[in-house]
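Practice problem: predict the structure.
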Amino acid sequence: MIKILFVCHGNICRSTMAQSVFQFMVNKAGLDRSFEIDSAATSTEEIGNPPHYGTVGELRRHNIPVIPHRARQLTKADEIHFDLLIGMDSANIRNMRRIVGSSEKIYKLMTFADMEKDVADPWYTGDFAETYADVKLGCEKLLKKLTD
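Answer:
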């Protein structure tokens, strides 16, 4: 089983979107028994909150079920439990390393699409469609890499 943790700043926009999108792709491919997928935050600001309404709306526009989730913070134990810790932007990666230490399990999502770009935070941009496009591409390429 491959255990993947998606991580962003608050765990209500990008990482929950990636969790739902990747789970949808895995289920559609009939691989749900091969993966454990979760998400977490680098901050404590949104702990206990559900996914942002903008994330929920964008996922619904694409007929992707929203994973029931409450924001939680990344822990050192996550680095032990999960095989991949996937951050959405450079600041997330820096904060992930601050929390769990230097780890070869930490990646930025868009590197799987051979891109160094960050997944923009729709909390600030308001553009959930752009974030979804990047998350979808990153998740597609991640799944391809893990199943080829």
